Amino acid sequence: MTINDVARNAGVSVATVSKVINGRYGVAAATSERVQEVISDLGYESSLVARSLRSLRTNVIGILVAEFEPFSTEILKGASRAVAGTGYDLLAYSGSAHSGGDVGWERRSLSRLSGTLIDGAVIVTPTVVEVRDNVPVVAIDPHKGPTGIATVDADNDAGAVLATEHLIRLGHRRIAFLGGRADLESSRLREEGFRGAMAAAGLPVDPALVRVGGYRREEADQPAHDLLSLPEPPTAVFAANDLMAIATIDAARDVGLRVPEDLSVVGFDDVPEAVAATPPLTTVAQPIQRMGVEAIGLLVQLIAGTEVTTEHIRLPTRLVERGSTGPVS
Fold this sequence. Notes:
Layout (H helix, E strand, L loop, with lengths): L2 H8 L3 H8 L7 H14 L5 H8 L4 E6 L4 H14 L5 E6 L10 H9 L6 E5 L12 E4 L9 E5 L1 H14 L5 E5 L5 H16 L9 E3 L4 H12 L7 E4 L2 H13 L9 E6 L2 H5 L5 E4 L2 H17 L7 E4 L2 E3 L9
Parallel strand pairs: 1-2, 1-3, 3-4, 4-5, 5-11, 6-7, 6-8, 8-9, 9-10
Antiparallel strand pairs: 10-12
Helix pairs in contact: 1-2, 1-3, 5-12, 7-8, 9-10
């Protein structure tokens, strides 16, 4: 459907239709109403690219993710709720589709989208924060932490302390840690919180009980099996995200251990998969959807040129107790 179709059906010129679409003066109210009715009936929408070339604005915010996995999907839910009433549309874009998720995917994504398709971007877990382009950017949980650009993240260290202290209160002393990717600040902080809570309780951390699971369920499968197959296996595992925790529950089932009777498991994130696990997963809840809400609010201010009170929003975490943890047997 083109602007010519709208003009023909409304019985006006293309120039008149253009004035109505762009809110310019010089069109009678009755004519404008008729054109709007035809636009609605035909489902006409002007080209984002053409509109941006005219006004230098698209009224579209981009949400850039490396992939659509549980964490980024929850971010999108919050962002879509927050964008309502702002006058902006939301464009979700998987930035690693052509690059395999390697370092720098966000730069390439911004180059493709900024200037003609989006007025600003929220980038979820960017690999770099030295992103400079012609649109405002907000980062959620960047790989290297909050430096360089406006950032929203959660209190990873405090959340890990909550998880570890919960296991200690249940009587566990031989507690394993299944960490995320070594290049991520969130992974480092969660391990730091685990070690700090263990030290505060006077408990040593056995190096054999610290493994890397990569934040992915499939990558965590072998490390989880290795932990549970040790001559002296742990009685509890704190996994640095829910997907690895669920992989640990699966591994326990494979080797004949019951959760939580023989093994307690705690995750981190509280994605929907956590409550659907068998048994339901005890986890540290990040306010993931709220992170999306806060990022959109911050970005809208930056696009408008409004002075923001802070460019780093850190949200609290909390422990959610479910059926995957219990007293040491």
